[in-house]
Amino acid sequence: MKQQWLHLACMLVVLSLTHVATAQSGGTCTPGVAAAVLDANNVQATVYNTGSLFYGAQGNSGYEIPRGSGVTSIYAANFWVGGLVDGELRMVAGTYAQGGADFEFFPGPVPPTGAASTDCAPHDRIWHVSDDDILRYEQTGALTADLRDWPVDLGAPVVDGDGVAGNYNLAGGDRPEVWGDQTAWWIMNDTAGPHWYTLTPPIQLEVRVQAFAAACVPELGTSGLDAQVQEAVQNATFYRYQLTYYGDAPLDDAYVGLWMDPDLGYRNDDYIGSDSSLSLGFVYNADVFDESNTLQAQYGYNDKPPALGAIILQGLNNHTGSDLGMQYFISPGRPAELGAVDVVHSARTVYNLMQGLWLGFYPLTYGGNGAGDDLGLGPTKHMFSGHPPAFWSEENIDGHGSRSEPGDRRFLMSSGPITWQPGEKQEIVLAIAWAQTNDRLGSVRRLKQHAAVLRGYYDSLARYDLATCSTETTTPVVEVPDGYAFTVYPNPATDAATLRVHLPISERVTLRVYDVLGREIQTLMAGQTMTAQIIAMPLDIKSWAAGVYVVRLEAGPYVASRRLVVR
Q: Which of 432, 465, 497 is the last residue of a domain?
């Protein structure tokens, strides 16, 4: 019923459009039908090669967590890109696309210049390889089809074992580059078929996607704050998009975005929010009990409502070395009118939303439902940016404790703008995190802690490593006060690392570094009073010996240690 209603709404919106009502394309391919499942940890996530995540042709939710519970936290998600070529809007986007008809990415690489693709079927595949597959091959010689056919010719990454660049020789020691414990890899483009959703010409993008999951961080143990890192990793999945633009002219004012319909168990009692310091958009339960609706096959989390978030770990690069992160967070259907503008089937509307603009080209404003500047606080980039229950969150939309009406939410997070040159490559990395405590707002706190540690440990997962470790944690995760966060990245590091500290209030801060024998290596701060802020402190480690170090932070009630691996 949900998708039928949505597609009726789509048809009504399309009929009202005044722009050209025919799809524009260089090819006649149909969207792919390939799918793969990530299930290395506490998540079971089904991915597709259509630009859609977790939502396939059958219209089923594909993000189950905890794995095996039958309860899902996301109904659908989709990767969006938009920009202008000589002033003409180009988009690739989608939402539900019943049967896949409206998805705008197609299997395979961008066709050669001037060629029109008519058959994408040979590339309609997602290659899926795990550490277990590789270890089984090394121990017994048994081969999975995807390990055997790893598509190095299409750009799939390979760990070179035979010293010959560009080939794939398993017997000689070459291996697929598995990130985490399990990697799914595919290639897609927006050129080979019609754009029935946005009705724009194709951008001419080729996208190589690496989706992966991990059971743990091998170099960490299972005690104290290490357990918090392991919990974050066990409840997360990652998505790395490598995009190449093959247009003839620059793509100006270009944005990328993640659109999501996050049904957190029972869908009609949700709230959303954002944290720009973490490039995080999230969903949480609006009341203390997440019920079930068995008639609609919606199963809730009962008296322990979790929180789920999407994180832009790496956004568009603006050519000055700056990662733009999450520039905008907005709800395509504002809480007061969910359903009325939920399906955004106009390319201009889609593009506006990626720039933090509503349907009538007016900006997102701070407070209320984000429209009309009811509180006179002016424009903003991030909707519901307060930490709940503070203002401005759905728990407090006016500064006086007024709450939004709970409901079925959507959100869009975007990065940009940049001018994208022909032939230029960009890399976008997304993570989806999930946290559950005995309290719904406690779940939001824990989610933000998870988002912070995933930033610090992403590099540890994003490398070929067959090391294994236990996924069981016997020591309780350490709770920390609201608003504090501490990460060290990249990790492992070689020449330099960055310490990132989020202080919600003014505190006296002490930061010291120790080696594994407990000897103090460096004092970075010693009781220095810092105002509420985000501190990003570079750490020069070029002269340090390879090994494991501990960075210890004391800030008021918050005491935390982070391991830093130097190579």
A: 432
Q: How many CB atoms lie within 10 A of CB 424?
A: 18
* Tens of pLDDT, residues 69-110: 989 999 999 999 999 999 999 999 988 876 667 899 999 999
DSSP class per residue in 391-402: SSBTTBSSSS--
> Residue 311 corresponds to which amino acid?
I
Please name which of 214, 134, 135 lies closest in space to residue 176, comparing C-alpha atoms.
Answer: 134
Answer for the pair 89, 347: CB distance below 8 angstroms, yes or no. Answer: yes
Same domain, 368 and 492: no
Residue 25 CA, distance from chain mean position: 28
Q: Is the pLDDT of residue 20 over 80?
A: no
Q: Listing from the earlier edge strand, what are the strands of the sheet with 496-503?
A: 485-489, 496-503, 533-540
Same domain, 495 and 561: yes
Q: Token digits for 491? A: 């990790």
Non-local CB neighbours of 247 within 8 Å, separated by 6+ positions: 85, 90, 203, 204, 422
Q: List 188's β-bridge partners, or say none.
A: 107, 207
Is 213 in the same domain as 289?
yes
Give residue-wise pLDDT tens across range 471-528. Answer: 443 334 444 455 677 778 777 788 888 888 878 888 888 998 887 556 788 898 998 8
Q: Is residue 421 part of a domain?
A: yes
Q: How far is CA 53 from CA 15, 274, 390, in A?
A: 27, 21, 32
Q: Which amino acid is at 425?
A: K
- Please give the structure tokens belonging to residue 417: 């703008």
- Whole-structure pTM value: 0.80
In a domain, 141, yes or no: yes
Half-sphere exposure of 415 (CA within 13 A, CB side): 26
**Tokens standing for 400?**
């006086």
Q: Nearest 5 degrees, angle CA 448-CA 450-CA 451?
A: 65
CA distances from 467 to 214, 218, 227 (A): 11, 6, 18
Instruction: Give the total number of structural domains in the chain.
Output: 2
Range of the domain at 157: 21-432
332: CB partners within 8 A, 6+ apart: 259, 341, 342, 344, 353, 410, 411, 412
Query: In the chain, what are the helix, strand and coil shares in percent, each to the nearest 5?
Result: 15, 35, 50
CB atoms within 10 A of CB 121: 12
**Identity of the residue numbered 231:** E
Tokens for 8, please give them.
Answer: 């009726």
Q: Using an 8 Å Cβ cutoff, are 309 and 432 in contact?
A: yes
Tokens in use for 71?
Answer: 């309860």
Q: Which residues contact 18 (CB under 8 A, 6 or more apart)?
A: none
Q: Using DSSP, state whether 305 is helix, strand or coil.
A: coil
The helix (run of H) or strand (run of E) holding residue 209 is strand 205-213
136 exposed, middle or buried (CB, 10 Å; 0-12, 13-18, 19+)? middle
pLDDT tens by residue, 212-242? 999 887 766 544 457 788 899 999 999 999 9
